[in-house]
Amino acid sequence: MMIAADYMDLPYHMVIIPSENTDGFVGYVMELPGCMSQGDNWSDMYDMLREAMSLWIESTLEDGEDVPMPDIEMKAWDTLRIPK
Q1: Per-residue model confidence as pLDDT tens digits over 1-47
Q2: Which of 66-69's residues contact partners 24+ apart within 8 Å by CB, and which partners?
Q3: How far is it, in rounded angstroms, from Cα 29 to Cα 70?
Q4: What is residue 4's three-state secondary structure?
Q5: Nearest-angstrom CA–CA distance, 16 and 54
Q6: Residue 55: what pLDDT?
Q7: What is d(CA 22, CA 40) in angstroms, rounded to the nearest whole number?
Q8: E strand segments, the chain
Q9: What is the pTM of this model?
Q10: Inter-residue long-range contacts of 37-44, CB under 8 Å, 24+ positions, other chains counted
Q11: Cα–Cα distance between 52 and 37 in angstroms, integer?
Q12: How far apart are the first and last CA of the chain?
């Protein structure tokens, strides 16, 4: 049986984009529905999204639900959009 820390080492797809409503960023994990975070700057956003991911996984496991595995078929992009 996997614990939350085991899932954190898996290659989930994280997306971080500029927020449309603020000067900050919004991030989400594609395979984990509703797992998202928001931050003021790019460097903090990754850590905040990892924290949201950990909490999402722990909560799902505590509820006795299955945590979705990463989609290994999904292609990753190396595109970075930075607002003007």
Answers
A1: 789 899 999 999 999 988 888 788 999 999 999 999 998 888 888 89
A2: 67/2, 67/7, 67/32, 68/31, 68/32, 68/33, 69/10, 69/31
A3: 10
A4: helix
A5: 17
A6: 97
A7: 8
A8: 14-18, 25-29, 36-39
A9: 0.81
A10: 42/16
A11: 6
A12: 46
Tell me which amino acid residue 53 is. Answer: M
Rg (CA), the chain: 14
For the record, the structure tokens of 69 come out as 């595995």
Residue with tokens 């000067």: 23
Domain spans of the chain, in order of start: 4-23+32-62
| Helix/strand/coil for 82 | coil
Tell me the H-state helices in the chain.
Answer: 4-8, 42-62
What confidence score (pLDDT) does residue 74 get?
Answer: 64
Q: Measured between alpha carbons, how far is 45 from 39 in angstroms, rounded to an integer?
A: 5
Tokens found for residue 50: 């990892």
Q: How many CA atoms lie within 13 A of 32 on its CB side?
A: 31
